Amino acid sequence: MMTTLIIPGYLGSEKGHWQRQWLADDDTARLVEQDDWENPVLSQWLHVLEAAISETPGAILVAHSLGCVLVAHLASRPSAAHVAGAVLVAPADAERMA
């Protein structure tokens, strides 16, 4: 069974967000939980995402906002080869977020 990894952006897609609804409706979906949703650090967030991918190779990534920027950075890393696909919804403006 294929796993869906839900990758929120800034603040972690709080209660009521469509990503939280996806998690509630899809038994194969798993949240990529960051340690600090309010202070994104690319290297730390990448480490958490890559750990999730190593636990669920062949997963589909569903990212929103700043999570899309994270997935874009993942694309150039070796662990990207273990991802079956990605859906990027409403990417954040990376320059503005810098």
Within the largest sheet, what's the order of strands?
A: 2-1-3-4
Main sheet makeup: 4 strands, parallel
Structural class: alpha/beta
The general outline is globular
What does this structure look like?
With about 100 residues, this protein is of the alpha/beta class. The protein has a domain at about 25-90. About 35% of the residues lie in helices and about 25% in strands. It has four helices and four strands. The protein has a four-stranded parallel sheet, sandwiched between helices. The longest helix has 14 residues, at about 40-55. It is globular and about 35 Å long.
Map the helices and strands:
Elements: E1 4-7, H1 18-25, E2 29-31, H2 42-55, E3 59-65, H3 66-74, E4 83-91, H4 94-97
Parallel strand pairs: 1-2, 1-3, 3-4
Task: Please name the defining characteristics of this protein.
36% helix; 98 residues; alpha/beta; 23% strand
Give the gist of this structure.
The chain has 98 residues and is an alpha/beta fold. The protein is built from 4 helices and 4 strands.
